[in-house]
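Incident log, structure service

09:12 report received: a user says their structure output differs between two submissions of the same chain.
09:20 pulled the input from the user's history:
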Amino acid sequence: MGSPSVLQSEFKLKSKSYAKVSCNLSCAWAEKTGKQLIDFGSPLMGGQRLSPDGTASNSTKEVTGYSFLEAANMDEAKSLLKGHPHLAWNGGCDIELHEGIPM
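09:34 re-ran on a clean worker, output below:
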């Protein structure tokens, strides 16, 4: 994995070629989702796995972004993600749902 600055440069170059299409699709999904989209999120890269002994290694999770939704339950959250543009990407892109637990 490259350094964060190299990865950011590569992302910017690659993203210019499909930024408009991706943005249009993502913005359409966001509009459809409405107020239940609490945080649109942003792209992520360069993840690190931290161990209890203080060592770090590159993450193998391939997390590339996040968003926060507000839903009454997991079924409603899944319904909100129907038609999300990332699910139509080539290359096996998928979305994981995780529920926040009040503390």
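09:41 both user submissions now match this output. Likely a transient worker issue. Closing.
09:42 reviewer note: The longest helix spans residues 4-33. The mean pLDDT is 83.
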